[in-house]
Design a protein that fits this description.
By secondary structure, the chain is of the alpha+beta class. 47% of the residues lie in helices and 18% in strands. It contains ten helices and eight strands. The strands form two sheets. It has a six-stranded antiparallel sheet with strand order 5-4-3-8-7-6. Strands 1-2 form a two-stranded antiparallel ribbon. Helix 1 crosses helix 3, helix 5 runs antiparallel to helix 9 and helix 6 packs across helix 8. The N and C termini lie far apart (52 Å).
Length: 269
Amino acid sequence: MVQSLDRALDVLETLAEADEDLSVSQLTERLGLPLGTVHRLLGSLAARGYAAQDRATRRYGPGPRLLEVAARAAGSRRFSLARVAIPSLQRLTDATGETSNLLLLQGREAAYSEQVSSPHMVRLFTEVGQRVPLYCTGGGKAILSGMGERDLEAYLAEAAPRAWTPKTISSLDGLRADVQLSARRGFAIDDEERDLGVCCVAAPIFDRQGRCVAALSISGPSTRLSAARAAGLGPMVRAEADACSAAMGFAGTRPGEPHGRAQQASDTA
C-alpha cells in the first residue's frame, strides 16, 4: 500500500514538473516502473482528476483536481506566515539573547507583525503594527535585497532617502550598492541607520511564487549587538528565513544566491 502511494506520488510529481504532456512510455522510462504499473496508476489518478489525458495524443498531464487541492491547501492556516515564522523568531532570540521580529512588506514600507522580546533588561521594543522605511532598516533592506532588479529600480526611482542619523545611507547609489551586497550574502545590516545606538541584521522571506514578502530580523543595542557581531549572526538569520520560505512553498533561489556559498562567506567577512 505504501509502495503504491509512493509510486502514485512519483507519477504526479513527474507530470507536474514536465513542460509538456508525457506518454506512458516516457513516464515508464523516467520512473523506472513497469508499463502495467504506470498504466494502472494513471488510470486511478485520471479517475480522481489528478491526471488528465489528451484524447488526440494519448499523452498525460496534471489534472484539474491537482490545482484545486493545491489552492485549498494554500489557504490553510498551516501556511500562515505568522505561524511559520514564530518558531524561528523564538529560536533566534534563544540563540542570540536579542529581540527578534517578523516584518511584512506593505506598499513602500515594512510593518512589524510579530516579535519575541530579548530576556535582557536593556532591550529593544518596537510596537507591533509600526511601519518603517525600507531603505534605513535591517528588515526593510532585507526585503529590498529580495526584490528582482526591476522592482528594486522602481523603488529607487521613487525613493527619497533622508538622513535619520549620520550613518543613514541616503544616496541612491550607496543604497543600491548596499542592497546588492545584502543580496549576495543573503542578509542585510542596519548599523545605527535609523536610530543611533541600535543595530539590526535581517534576511528576506519568499512566498511560493518567489515574491519577497517579509523579513526576519534580530535587533539590539549596539553596545551588545555591534555591526561585527551582526555580520557573524547573519548566516543564522538567513538560515531561519530560508526555512520560513521553504515552509511557505518557495523552492527557487534567492537573488544573489547563484554567486555561491564561497562568495557569501567572502561578503560576510
